[in-house]
Give the backbone structure.
Amino acid sequence: MATKTTTALITGASAGLGAEFARQLAAQGHNLVLVARDRARLQETAAGLERRYGIRAEVLPADLTDDAGVAAVVGRLTAVESPVGVLVNNAGTGLLHKFEESHISAEKQHLKLHVESAMELTHAALQGMLERGSGRIINVSSIAAFLPRGTYAAAKAWLLSFSRSANVAYGPRGVKVTAVCPGFTHTEFHDRMGADKSVTPAWTWLTAERVVREGLADNLRGKAVSIPSKRYKAVAVAARVLPDRLLTGPARKAK
Ligand code: NAP
C-alpha cells in the first residue's frame, strides 16, 4: 500500500514495538523522531536506521510520566518548520501487582504514561495535521482493552475508545487514527515488569514485526482498530458475549 513519506514521531522507540515501528517506518522512507528515556539506546537505534535506510533520525530523550518530558515532546510536535505527519503513541509499562497491592504512585504514573501523555501528544499533533489536511496517529492499545483486567486494561480501553471516536471525527478531515490492539508479543515488556512469561502458552505469542506491519497497514486503510491475528480477533468477539469471570485470563506471576 502506498505511503506518503513524512516525519514520524514514535514514543517508546528504544525497544520492542516502538523500535519496530521506527524500523518499518524508516524502511518506508520516513524521517524519524525517536522518544524514550534511554538516550544512548535511542542514539544507537537512530544511527543504525540512518545507515540502513538513508533517512534522518532525531532523538528526543523524555520521560513521559513527567510534565517536563511531555512538554518537550509537545514542543517538537508543534514545531511548524519541521512538521510531524505520523504520531505513534506507544511507550508503556505493565504493572505486576494486583490493584489493592500496587502503590498508588505507580498507578498514577502508569495512567499518566498510557493515557494522559498520549492524549496530550495527540492534541498537540492534531492541530497541524488538521491544518494540513493529512496525518496519521497510531495509539498502541492492547487486546486487554476488551477484557476486564485491572487498571492496565482500563487505560488501554481509554485509548481504544478515544481512537475510535477520533477516527470518525478526523478521518474525513484527512487524519487517520488507529488503536493497535496486540495480544502477548515478544518484546522487553514482561521482563521489565518482572513477570514470568512461561505462564502463557507459546501459541499465544506474536512477533513485533507482525503487530507493527498489520497496524501500519490498517492505519493506512483508515481502520480505527487493528487486532493482529485471527486468534486475537476471536478474543475480541468472545469478549462481547462471555461473562467477565471467564475473561480475566491467567493471573500475572512474578519471575
Ligand atoms: P518494551 O519492549 O518494554 O518497550 C517499552 C518502551 O517504552 C521502551 O522504549 C521504553 O523506553 C519506553 N518507556 C517506558 N516508560 C517510559 C517513560 N516513562 N517515558 C518514555 N518512554 C518510556 O514494551 P513493548 O511491548 O514494546 O510495549 C510497547 C507498547 O505495547 C506498550 O504501550 C504496551 O502496553 C503495549 N503492548 C504490549 C504487549 C506485549 O505483550 N508486549 C501487548 C499489548 C500491548 P525507555 O526505558 O528507554 O524509556
Residues 7-246 form a domain with the Rossmann fold fold (CATH 3.40.50.720). The first strand starts at residue 7 and ends at 11. The two ends are 42 Å apart (CA to CA).
